[in-house]
Specification:
This protein is α+β, with helices and mostly antiparallel strands and 106 residues long. It has one domain: Ubiquitin-like (UB roll) (Roll), CATH 3.10.20.30. Helices cover 13% and strands 22% of the residues. The chain has a 5-stranded mixed beta sheet. The longest helix is centred in the first third of the chain and has 7 residues. The radius of gyration is 12 Å and the shape is globular. Bound molecules: FE2/S2 (inorganic) cluster.
Length: 106
């Protein structure tokens, strides 16, 4: 099990436990993080699962692949630590991962 903490734009922190093989987007949806709308269901086609990976974690998770990087060009307020949460597969070594959630993206 992998603990993930979501920090919403208003500072609200939500901790959840994700199983390996889930995506960070699925963990957010299970934790009722409203700003992660995930409208395409994880198909890397909508950008509404955009999140910011906490700076300490950026180098510890696999980098975005080409299709994710392309889609990140369409999200609102992209930053260097932007990711699509549906493209981050949870692994045990991500225990303690911190994800910052942008304002509503719908
Ligand atoms: S859920 Fe649509 S791009 Fe991630």
């Amino acid at each position: 099990m992998t603990k993930i903490t979501f920090i919403e734009a208003d500072g609200t922190k939500t901790e959840t436990i994700a199983q390996p093989g889930m995506t960070v987007m699925q963990a957010a949806v299970h934790a009722n993080i409203a700003a992660i709308a995930a409208e395409c269901g994880g198909a890397c086609a909508c950008g509404t699962c955009h999140c910011y990976v906490a700076p300490d974690w950026v180098g510890k998770i696999p980098s975005a692949q080409e299709d994710e990087a392309d889609m990140l060009g369409f999200v609102i307020d992209p930053q260097d630590n932007s990711r699509l949460s549906c493209q981050i597969e949870v692994t045990p070594d991500m225990d303690g991962l911190v994800i910052q959630v942008p304002d509503s993206q719908t």
